[in-house]
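To: structure subgroup
Subject: Chain for Friday's discussion

All,

I'm putting the inputs and outputs inline so they're searchable in the archive.
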Amino acid sequence: MSAGETSVEVLCVIDSGQPGRRCGGVAVVPDLGAALLRASPLILDGVVVTDTRAPQASFDTLSSMAQLNGLRAGSIVAPSLLRISPASMLVVEEATS
């Protein structure tokens, strides 16, 4: 995925297996907590799941962590090609309505 042609600013990549590295010119951090720290003092508006190996698990984990860290329910999103289950996506749809 690329954000180069949009007004979206990618602050970091979350990958617990590759922390400390760089991806697409941005830092790789181990978890959502580290991403929130990296974003500070800015506010992290959202997270886009791009995990193709375990997209549902990543989405569910990030959604849970988002709520624990005070992010709104709809802040975790995923492209339809990852086929996140409708039950999980319902949470996103309700939050954005």
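Points worth raising on Friday:
The longest helix spans residues 55-68.
Residues 17 and 32 are 13 Å apart (CA to CA).

D.
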